[in-house]
Amino acid sequence: MTHFQSVEYVDLPAVFHLSAKHSQDAAPQKVNLTVGAYRNDSGKPWVLPVVRKAESILAADDSLNKEYLSMGGLPSFCDAAMKLALGESSIAIQEDRAVALQSLSGTGCLYVGFQFVAQFYKGPKDILVSNPSWGNHKLMIDRIPALNFKQYTYYDPKTLEVDIEAMIADLEKASDGSVILLHACAHNPTGIDPSREQWKRICEVVKKKSFLPFFDMAYQGYVTGSFDEDAWAVRYFVEQGIELFVSQSFAKNLGLYCERVGNLTFVSTNSEVAHKCLSQMKIIVRSVYSNPPAHGARVASMIMTIPELRAEWEGYVKEMHQRIRRVRTSLHTALKTANVPGSWEHILTQNGMFSYTGLTKQQCELLIENHHIYLLKTGRISMCGLTEENVKYVAAAFKEVIEATS
């Protein structure tokens, strides 16, 4: 006898399913453009040398033990991560109205923040999310009964740009006091970010409507190679005196994918309120996973706070940024050289790890089935899966499926 006879099987999220299919594919020529993880010029995962260096230092430190961290995580990590997000001279930090909590990468930060909103936020429990957005946003929000997943227009499939007028119009129609989820930089999945002038317009609507912004910043450093430049939108909103959350992941910019290193910053307008809220977020952590893991946080803290390691890390972040820019240029060149129908300038203007190609679902399916090129059926590709060795093959395949479906 089982009490769970009625449970139905659920398919894996597409990114995991397609990546598994790629691994099982015996074709001699195959390309994986699904997973949002950095790859080097050989298409291999890359452990940053500065991470290896920090781990060696930690391994030789006999004073360290395996005791639990506190519910809020490693204080030196939280402090350094918060400064990376808000800036060393942030007025919110100076006035002690910014607080931080270590969590399980960006996903854990978002979940803790969403749970806190569900339990304590007095405004509408509508979470406004860009259309499209990272699939896990909806998955998390839908599984917290008090929250309502709502979408606002973000992407114009005709221009392949931010549809700022439609976005503003949708936000104007949303309930006052709603929570708005914003991608700080390197929007996932489109790779299209607002300009600074557009960010200012968004900020004006946020103030007018008394929205609570929740920034998801998973790719700080990937857009420009500069942590400060990529955090501009977050810092601008803080300068405007807006209360907000920031979720940070160190999976991408430090390559600590499996270590699950994240930081949740809350900026309030009041120091006492900020610390009261932090105490409640710690209780949420206690109820879900008790406390976060130490190793990745120690690595990240050391790299962020030791000047020579920090400088080395910043160099590697620039290197990752530059490789992504190179493969964008290589793909654009290969598409133009092969006379692939359509305009491909958006490949160059989009930012970060992902690109929304504009390919249709049918074209994506043909790429997977006929060419063993694995990508999401929305047309999103991870630029990191491209190399100098496979980019011409990918461009030729794009040409074939586009001409076959025209």
Work out the number of β strands. Answer: 13
What is the overall silhouette? globular
Helix content: 40-55%
Pick out the low-confidence regions. none
Q: How do the SSEs run, as a string of H and E?
A: HEHHHEHEHEEEHEHEHHEEHHHHEHEEH
Q: How are the strands ordered across the major sheet?
A: 2-10-9-8-7-3-4
Question: Over all CA atoms, what is the radius of gyration?
Answer: 22 Å
Number of helices: 16
- Major sheet characteristics: 7 strands, mixed
Mean pLDDT: 96
Which structural category do the helix and sheet elements fall into?
A: alpha/beta
Strand content: 5-15%
Distance between the termini: 55 Å
Description:
The chain is α/β, with parallel strands linked by helices. It contains 16 helices and 13 strands. It has helices at 14-24, 49-59, 75-86, 91-94, 105-120, 135-142, 164-173, 196-209, 227-230, 232-239, 271-288, 295-305, 307-337, 346-349, 361-371, 391-405, and strands at residues 31-32, 98-104, 126-131, 148-153, 155-156, 161-162, 179-183, 212-217, 244-249, 261-267, 354-356, 373-374, 380-382. The strands form four sheets. A seven-stranded mixed sheet has the order 2-10-9-8-7-3-4, sandwiched between helices. Strands 1-12 form a two-stranded parallel ribbon. α6 links the parallel β3 (126-131) and β4. The longest helix is centred in the C-terminal third of the chain and has 31 residues, at 307-337. The protein is globular, with a radius of gyration of 22 Å. It starts with 13 loop residues before the first helix and ends with a helix.
